[in-house]
Prior knowledge:
About 30% of the residues lie in helices and about 20% in strands. By secondary structure, it is α+β, with helices and mostly antiparallel strands. Strands 1, 2, 3, 4, 5, 10, 14 and 15 form an eight-stranded antiparallel beta sheet that branches. Helix 4 (about 265-275) packs antiparallel against helix 5 and helix 13 packs antiparallel against helix 14. It is globular, with a radius of gyration of 24 Å. Belongs to the glycosyl hydrolase 15 family.
Amino acid sequence: MSLKIEDYGLIGDCHSAALVGNNGSIDWLCFPRFDSAACFAALLGTPDNGRWQIAPVEDVLSVKRRYRPETLILETEFQTASGRVRLIDFMPSRDGSADVIRIVEGIEGKVPMHLELVIRFDYGSIIPWVRHTPRGIRAIAGPDTLDYRSDVTLRGENLKTLADFTVTPGHRTRFSLTWSRTHDPEPIERNPETELLHSEKWWQEWSGKCTYSGGWKDDVLRSLITLKAMTYAPTGGVVAAITTSLPEHLGGVRNWDYRYCWLRDATFTLYALIVGGYTDEAKAWREWLVNAVAGTPNQIQIMYGMAGERRLTEMTLPWLPGYENSKPVRIGNAAYNQHQLDVYGEVVDSLHLARLAGLAPDENAWRVERELVTFLETDWQKPDEGIWEVRGPRRHFTHSKVMAWVAVDRAVDAVEKYGLSGDAEKWRALRTKIRDEVCAAGFNTKVNSFVQHYDCDEPDASLLMLPLVGFLPATDPRMLGTVAYIQKRLMNHGFVHRYLTESAIDGLPGGEGAFLLCTFWLADNLALQGRTDEARDIFERLLSLRNDLGLLAEEYDPQAGRLLGNFPQAFSHIGLINTARNLSREGATALSRTMSVE
């Protein structure tokens, strides 16, 4: 039986990451990058698709987990009838590393342990050639090699590597798994204890740079650490999630690969990093962004690979049954070819936020902004697929038009307040034209609300962004009506859905869970309207959805009471950081992105 999504913990090294279950099994691991083929894919199949479990032989009476303070070092304690044992999991925080280290420590009694290692390259499809080495085994399949080193004697059975050992109080047993390219020299074995000390120091030093001093500080820091773990260190790109195909509806087809960098996430990520005081990471993210979108504006994609790769061809993996039989399992993401007007606004807004935060001016960044706004002078009038990447016909989405307005608005601000070169007069006129059209065509007087797209009466949670980007005050009667309409039509047990999936706008069957980021946006809107107590109640409700390690997925099923979608999800943690900061302002007032983030 599959573990629930919330039963997993995250470990990572800012290059790749793994999910560790509360049963001691690593069920998802991609080496050497977040988007590399998984060598452990049991998360989307069965143990035969690859996993690495270390757990007591006896029945486990209780499990306790935690991260070491201010780190991503995971500790899992198992209590059995014979005693108590601690499993320490981490990925060494060194540039260029591709390692997982596990240390088993006896705490009380004499606890028999069992180890099962199932290496299956290429998402569980390839059984490697395995040979014994003096300290373990070496598994090879084409370009990929894993060196497994252990303090215990290993044996092979039925294409698996097994071991049995016993731990006693104070006794520590060490294991490591290292990836390398097959044609490279065999990697040098690292001392697990030394690596543990180094990683703990590295994470604590990084956490110590956090300047956030508002409410919920520990929660904000945990989410910042999670975002850092999802950052690809060589380029500064942040992946949307470390997993693919965890379903938005159990048994459904809404299963997508999120191991890429979305331009839309740029603004939210940059804002969250700045809130935490991490200007070096914010600067690296800006550099990744400018490099990724290099070229002509009409060639800009909505997402890229971690190093700026553009071809993210989508395909399905028929040999994997999917998480709780949710098919298909996909790798790649066909949405990279979509036209989404809002990403132009998000890119320009992210660079605007960098200026507000005092990041050093970047000539290339302004050149990119200027070209994007020039492109939008005509492109803003075209239909698109919208923020939710619907796989149906293009429409005139209201949120998309608003984000085009944002791009032009920020360009005007850059000229008028920062003295950058540009035709502010023409852009001011364009800004007014877009605003007038949105207010006329995007607002439906019959329902007293802005609506998903022109000529409809459907709500959309993306409309909660209008006050947050400065398009209208949250107290404007039209926004009061919009918030009320969203609460009436899209809320489910206190959580917000993105849109009405039964409307068939996205061309897909089945529904999905409530979208956590949208619920954070609702809290921001209520705070801006002066409904502070309601905003705080929603925020605290969202915090309660986190698992015992402080991690959030993309969505939540209120009926089943469980997390859904890819995990952990950057958007959800970004929302947590931003809303905590917004509610911590004087008077608990949320913050428009047009204002200073100091």
